[in-house]
Amino acid sequence: MDRSLSHLDRRGHLQMVDVGAKDETSRFARAWGQVHMAKNTIEKVTSGTFMKGDVLAAARIAGIMAAKQTATLIPLCHPLPVSHVGVELLPLVDGKRIIIVAEARVTGKTGIEMEALTAVSVAALTVYDMCKAVDKRMSIGSITLLEKYGGRSGHYLNPDFAASVTISIPLELRLGMEIRLAKEGNNYLLEYQDNAKGPVRLVMDCLPGSLAYFDAGERPCRPTAGVFLLGESVLELLPSGPGQETVSLSVVKAGVVESGDMFAALG
C-alpha cells in the first residue's frame, strides 16, 4: 500500500487524518479556474443585463460561502476557522471567458488549499447557473492550485502557471502602470519605469510553464494568457502594434509586490 496516501489507514480503509500533534501555523492558498462562454454571453455579464441579476457579485458571494462550508462538502476535510476568503472574477470579453481567482487564509494545523479550490469551483458553477438560460455550451475548466504556504511543506508554487520574483524592497504597483516582460541572459525580468525610483526590475530565475513561448526563439511571441497576477496586483496583456516585439502588461488592479511573491500567467 502507498503510505503517502494519508487518507488510507494500514488496512486500506478511508480515515480522517489526525492532525492533533501538528503545530498551528499561518497558512495560505490561492487557486484559479475559468468559465468559457460565447462572446454575447460575456457581454451580457459585463453589462449587467441578465434577468437574474449581477452574475459576478452572485458568484463572488457563492465562492466565499462555499469555502466556509468545505468540510461539509469534502468528506475527509477538517473544519477550519477560516480567517479570510477572497474571490475575484475577471471577465475577458475578447477571450470569451471569465477568470476566477480565490485565496484563503487560516491559522491552523492543516492546509487550506481545499477551501480555495472549493471557492473557485462553486463560483464557476454559479456563473454557469446564472447564464445557462442563454448559453448551454459554456464549459468550466483549469481549476488548479496556484500557490500555498504554511506547515512542513513550505512554499509551493505551481510551475505550470507561476514563478516567484526577487526584488530588494517592496514595490507599489499603481493602476495603469505598464510593465514589460523581458529576458536577459538566463534571467527573466519584469521591468517598469518609476517616477521616483527610475527603472525598476523584478527578477525571476524561471518562467511559468504557461509562458514557455518566450523561450521558443530570439523574438518573444504573443502569449495566450490573458490575465497575470503579480503579488496583490492584477495585470492584463496590452495589445501589440505591427512589428512590435515586446510583451507589455498593464496594471488593472493596484497592489504591493514583495520579494518571493508570485507572478502567474493564467489562461
Explain how this protein is built.
The structure is a single chain. The protein has 267 residues and is an alpha+beta fold. It folds into 2 domains: 25-154, Molybdopterin cofactor biosynthesis C (MoaC) domain (Alpha-Beta Plaits, 2-Layer Sandwich), CATH 3.30.70.640; 162-266, M1 Pyruvate Kinase, Domain 3. The chain is 17% helix and 37% strand. The protein has 4 helices and 15 strands. It has helices at residues 39-47, 55-67, 70-73, 113-131; strands at residues 25-36, 84-92, 97-108, 139-149, 156-157, 162-164, 171-173, 178-184, 187-194, 198-204, 227-230, 233-237, 247-253, 255-257, 262-266. An 8-stranded antiparallel beta sheet has the order 6-15-11-12-13-8-9-10, with no helix packed on it. Strands 2-3-1-4-5 form a 5-stranded antiparallel beta sheet, with helices on one face. α2 (55-67) runs antiparallel to α4 (113-131). The longest helix is centred in the middle third of the chain and has 19 residues, at 113-131. The protein is globular, with a radius of gyration of 20 Å. The chain starts with 24 loop residues before the first strand and ends with a strand. The model has no long low-confidence stretch (mean pLDDT 86).
